[in-house]
Write a structure and sequence with these properties.
The chain is of the alpha/beta class and 580 residues long. 26% of the residues lie in helices and 31% in strands.
Amino acid sequence: MPVLAGVLFIVLVLAVVLIAGVIRKYSLSDERADQMAYFGLEADDEVAVILQNEQAELHGLLIDGQPYVNFETVQNSLNSRFYWDANENQLLYALPDNLVKVPVGSSEYYIGKDRQNFNYNIVKTEGNDTYVALDFVKQYTDLEYQLYDSPNRVEILYQWGTQNVATLKDDEAVRQKAGIKSPILTDGKKGDTLTVLDTEEGIEDWTKVRTADGYIGYVRNKRLGSVEAQELASSGDFQAPVYTNISKDYTINMAWHNVTTAAANDTVLSTIASTKGLTTISPTWFTIGDNDGNLDSIASAEYVNYAHQSGLEVWGMIDNFKEGVDTYEVLSYTSKRENLINQLIAQAIQYGLDGINVDFEKLSSETGIHFIEFVRELSIKCRSNNLVLSVDNYVPKAYSSHYYRAEQGVVADYVIIMGYDEHFAGSEESGSVASIGFVRDGIEQTLAEVPAEKVINAVPFYTRLWQETPKTEEEIAAEDTTAVDYKYIPYKLSSQALGMQAVEDVLTANGATPTWDDTTAQYYAEFEKDGSTFKVWMEEEKSIEEKAKLLKEYNLAGIAEWKLGLEKSSIWDIILKYVN
């Protein structure tokens, strides 16, 4: 009997232990999450920033009860039109008719030349970080926010529209992760309305939610009512600024006139004499002259008079092609941008221009944010002086996303696609300058960001004659085949840009007969000479017509051509069919 009693006792103890283990495993944890750690806060003056349904990576500051948000958060999430000049320590915001300027550590700011007061400091800096008063951001942004304490957090709503919500059917803890053992963030009460966030894969029986006071966590599905759509709307107090634009009531037919010297202005009459249907001429008159933002100009009043007498508008072009000039250096300083813009506008007024065409090429990704600010600021001056502002752009590719085409489409009057240079002087392989697929893709990609009534597609009046010369055995042996980007190409490649008639003359001289290529919508020809193979994808009446047809197909604002003097006179009859 004692032995049996002992066995029963052991069994009983094991059962108790087992039951206790089961209870522990399946019972809800009452552990509370460390609130400061959850929000990533380390100091009393820090404030967590909740952007709609997620927490911002960068915290803000709470100064004298006022929330400040890191500038990166402002620009990347709330309002990309805010611009920070780290060189001259000022915050800028481009309105349609004025530039807002805010110096660091001041409660005063300027709208144009008018001084305004904001009651407390607008911009704070700590080390390399810049913080902007959220109420100031709110002046120019359709957002609403709520500030909470214990711990400090600010919930910002700025994405308006339909959201999914559900009501708690009973009291329920909102947990940090999907699991009954996860720490509790906050206690949900019966009847609380929660915003239902996207369902995450691999999570069953739990739903990710946002509480009314900014906690983002998980609740059990069985405690949640049915999910319903709810319209989230702002108070309606914010009035978005309207960036007015000049829009011509005709289809634009613009051609660039490559003017490299003042004396070349005298060719304007002979250059336009053979054109038909041209509405606009863009002489290449202006360039950034130095790193202080001074302007080099070869503008001519006589040229403008001749053009106007011929019924043409003149959009003077400014480029960044001058050797030794650092575009980033100029555009990243507000004072230098102002200097450049003021001189450019002064020239436009002095010579009676109708518009300005911006052709800044080969911009580094770091320059992009300063470039688009330049365009915004230039648009203010163009708007107030009734000048058309157009901006030239590459066919959209990942490497040119920093040109901010969508923003150009808001502040500029016209966005011009340079629908060429599919293959260029530095290309590894020969190919078309502007195949129809390349051109069409450029238009469609641009239209994804810019309204059609603002888009002008530019076509080339030139092509490239490619020369492929076989490499010698010594040249092949000398190649670094271990390089990561190595690609075996059996020939040396060179090319020259030629106008339409010049290409035809070369083919005639070498007995080459071009054949139509449906894929590129161009005539293709090749010939052998002196041990090299010459290839060309031609631009002529038929290829230009295929590109001009896209004008009507996509309801574009117009067509442009690079450049005058390289075309055959018969081309104008083709283009005229699609601009009338």
